[in-house]
Amino acid sequence: LLLGHAFDADWFRSKRDTPYRVLGLAEDATDAEVDQAYRRLISQYHPDKLSGVAEELRRQAEDKASEI
Questions:
Q1: Tens place of pLDDT per residue across the chain (68 aa)
Q2: Which residue among 1, 35, 46, 68 is least enclosed by CB atoms within 10 Å?
Q3: From CA 1, how far away is CA 3, in angstroms rounded?
């Protein structure tokens, strides 16, 4: 029973499986909402904006920016 619930709840799917999840949007989001979410997230995580931080934080930002 628990295993069935796990599949129903998407426990075994990657959080990265849809672009909408990466952007924090519902799958019925409009193009304008997608554009706004992309711009907001990329401005937060773009590696060029984090030039003075520790190398580990910069690497995490690069990973997040490439995911976005």
A1: 444 444 454 555 555 568 888 888 998 999 999 999 999 999 888 878 777 778 888 888 888 888 88
A2: 1
A3: 5
